[in-house]
Design a protein that fits this description.
Layout lengths: L4 E2 L2 E2 L7 E5 L3 H6 L9 E5 L4 E3 L4 E2 L7 E3 L1 E7 L8 H5 L2 E8 L2 E2 H9 L5 H4 L5 E3 L3 E2 L10 E6 L2 E7 L7 H9 L9 E3 L7 E2 L5 E6 L3 E8 L1 H7 L1
Parallel strand pairs: 3-15, 5-11, 6-18
Antiparallel strand pairs: 1-2, 3-4, 7-10, 7-16, 8-9, 8-15, 9-12, 13-14, 13-17, 17-18
């Protein structure tokens, strides 16, 4: 089980589940030719999807393109069930970054057949997470700047102001379908600029001036040798 860090120390709970939202940025929906939904498109990654973003990033190589989707990640600190936005605001432990790794070719086939996305979205290691900093640092959840550079070139840059479903209302909405417990992580959607990763890529990720992470993409075999 992956235990996230909060302000440099292990959090009190390991990651339980990761609740995600699709198409929460209109520009990202457009780049994949997806309609903008009327209500949040929710899906879940299991605990084994979580891994350390600071470690070499192992990607599967035999199932087509693996796309990066950079997102603001929120660490839940108190149990939320059918919560109000005010209750959500008081229950958030930390904020960080996550990658929603997506087997894009697999997802496309599943979507064409009207089947669930789990094989494309919820595989082991599909949610690398950065360290978290205290949610108390956030004065405005709808003004968070974040970015991803790949091999020195900017790939994604976003601001949470562009979310179709703002952070607090999104998490409140999620809690009406899924009880959120301490250690659960909410992924809040990705801005445009997603694309395939390749072995050997160097990634630099940043959230405000709070978090800066550098990692590299490796093959599964290389990851195993490093253990």
């Amino acid at each position: 089980m992956f235990t996230p860090s909060l302000d440099g120390a292990p959090f009190s709970s390991p990651v339980g589940k990761i609740v995600c939202v699709g198409r929460n940025y209109a520009a990202h929906a457009a780049e994949l030719n997806n309609p903008v939904p009327d209500t949040p498109v929710l899906f879940i990654k299991p605990a084994d999807a979580a891994c350390d973003l600071q470690a070499p990033l192992s990607i599967p190589l035999s199932q087509g393109d693996v796309h990066h989707e950079l997102e603001v990640a929120v660490l839940i600190g108190k149990r939320l069930q059918k919560a109000s936005e005010a209750e959500v605001s008081g229950a958030l432990a930390g904020v960080g970054l996550g990658l929603d790794l997506t087997l894009r070719d697999v997802q496309s086939v599943l979507k064409e057949k009207g089947l669930p996305w789990e094989r494309a979205k919820a595989f082991d290691g599909s949610c690398p997470l950065s360290p978290f900093v205290s949610a108390a640092r956030v004065s405005d959840w709808q003004n968070l700047n974040f970015s991803l550079h790949r091999n020195g070139a900017q790939q994604q840059s976003g601001n949470s102001a562009d979310m179709l479903n703002p952070v607090l209302s999104l998490i409140a909405h999620m809690s009406h379908s899924f009880t959120l417990n301490p250690g659960d992580v909410v992924m809040t959607g990705t801005p445009p600029g997603v694309g395939p990763l390749n072995v050997g890529d160097s990634l630099e990720l940043a959230l405000e001036d709070w978090i800066a992470v550098t990692t590299e993409v490796v093959s599964p075999q290389a990851s195993e040798k490093s253990l």
